[in-house]
Amino acid sequence: MTSARLSGSNAPTSAHIKLLDDRRFRSLLSDEDWGRLPLATWRRFSKRVADGDSVVYVGVVDEVAFSDIGWWFAQAARLIGGPLPTGRDTGVPMIVTVTEDGATGGQTWTRICARKRGFPQVIHSAKRFAGPTGLEEYVGFGVSMALRITFEGETLTFRSAGYGLQLGRLWIPLPPWLTPGDLTVTHSDLGEGAFRFTLDVVHPRYGALIHQSALFREAVS
User: Organism's domain of life (predicted)?
Assistant: First the structure.
């Protein structure tokens, strides 16, 4: 499990990537919470590459769980780009690529999850530092989700704070019955360059729908 940095100019090594100071995530946390972040987490969320360049993390999926309703909901979500995991395989690679989007000032995220059989699942989304919470994630067909960030214990936590549909300049809130419920993503530093990424979807009526966990490790520089 390693991380690497790829340049939009097809530079052969990470030495060609210029890292910039990134205050976008810093502005979404209180001074107290930002100061409590583990050093490695602080560094990951403070670095920014130039527009069009990417940071790539490679890890392995170690936990996956679906309720029956959750699995069917994930399949149905393919109609808007497949933003939720759909496979049950563990021990398979996961690749996350974060690319700076100069047009919006946000980031384009691509998540590739391998399967033991068949083609890998690819999830595309775009993060924009806008909206009522300061952070929105767009997953396809104008569907977006506002996110709130907190630091709890030793975990950086992203929680859904409402879903909506973008139609031109108009943003329409989606009713609860059209949404999966509460989505939570966590980033937990494990020390020595390793960290854990988790995704959980919990519906207020049907309970836990989806859980996925993956382990990543930074390359030693």
Answer: Bacteria
Q: What share of the chain is helix, strand, coil (3-state, %, to 5)?
A: 15, 50, 35
Measured distance CA(185)–CA(191) in Å, rounded: 19
Side-chain half-sphere exposure of 56, counting CA atoms within 13 A: 17
Backbone angles phi, psi at 198, to 5 degrees: -130, 150
Of 209, 164, 161, 154, nearest in space to 186 by CA: 154
Contact between 179 and 139 (Cβ < 8 Å): no
Confidence of residue 15 (pLDDT cuts 50, 70, 90): very low
Picking from 24, 22, 23, 18, the residue whose alpha carbon sits closest to that of residue 136 is 24
Instruction: Quote the CA–CA distance of 153 and 157 in Å, as a whole number.
Output: 10
